[in-house]
Amino acid sequence: MKLFKCQACGHLVYFENRACECCGHRLGYLPDAGTLSALEPDGGTTWHALARSEGADRFCANAEFDACNWLVPVTAGDAYCTACRHNGLIPDPSVPANLAAWRVMERAKHRLFYTLLKLRLPLVTRAEDPEHGLVFEFLAEPPANDGPKVMTGHDEGLITIALSEANDLERERRRTAMGEPYRTLLGHFRHEVGHHYWDLLVRDGGRLEACRAVFGDEREDYGEALQRYYRTGAPTDWQERFVSAYATTHPWEDFAETWAHYLHIVDTIEMAEAFGMRVGPPLDDSGTLSADFGVDADSGADIGRVVEDWLPLTFALNSLNRCMGQRDLYPFIISPPVVEKLGFIHGLGRDAGQ
């Protein structure tokens, strides 16, 4: 993620900002340009984005609910922005609790789309591809004892997210009950979209054998693998080969977990660079804890160079969190086999974005 600057007054603004807190200009995100722009009224419902010299835009239809601040070119003829046109089912926004939760969902989903667009990954809607297009359904839980719980998951491009995951208390309850070190809404989005890109870039992209060589054979019975994981847990040595305990479940889950961590890494490194952060502790004579974040995922660097920046950053951020009495921000180990898996995904994304 980047920092942005208001084109009207030069004040720093952030991805989710709706207006500049300094000059008051309304702000909108231009997905085609990858920037947040100050806006001037252009008559009626259209706006002129100061980030570009010509053209008129209007807000995504979901701006009506304060669920989106992305813009759509008037010439495009679409009511919804690049991110929101992938919505298949949203909760009833006339219910205040649903609306509040959906807004939280959209903030996470739009951050996901920021990275997918930055990496130039293929994005096809369900309307464009009824069988495999990417579509999201945000489902509210049924009343107690009145039907099955909503399961977050993926099926041939259809990603279902339980609306209850937008509730911090409920998500923390589930994290604790499942013994997870980390559980976030953005993490769910990144994990589930990893399954989608496995379908697109591995299964349909002719890379099954190459992927099996790194992640294992996905033809292993998934249902049995899932039951085994919940019955016996992860192997005791899982950290030597996997990025998370859940990644040990099945090669599909290993891929999706590693995909999610890859997006965590590239997005966080970009933000560290945007803030001009550097890591160089004076006590570190070896220099192994130093990083200047001059490399990002689309720079052409290999994954080893990216990880060399990532590890010092996580050591520093984890130490800062501990000073505040918080859990480690990134409570995971990047072992050499995990670096290899990240490298496979790094290559997939780079090839797909060319």
Automatic annotation (TrEMBL):
<feature type="domain" description="Zinc-ribbon">
    <location>
        <begin position="3"/>
        <end position="93"/>
    </location>
</feature>
<dbReference type="Pfam" id="PF10005">
    <property type="entry name" value="Zn_ribbon_DZR_6"/>
</dbReference>
<dbReference type="InterPro" id="IPR011201">
    <property type="entry name" value="Zinc-ribbon_6_bact"/>
</dbReference>
<protein>
    <recommendedName>
        <fullName>Zinc-ribbon domain-containing protein</fullName>
    </recommendedName>
</protein>
<keyword id="KW-0614">Plasmid</keyword>
<dbReference type="InterPro" id="IPR031321">
    <property type="entry name" value="UCP012641"/>
</dbReference>
<dbReference type="Pfam" id="PF15887">
    <property type="entry name" value="Peptidase_Mx"/>
</dbReference>
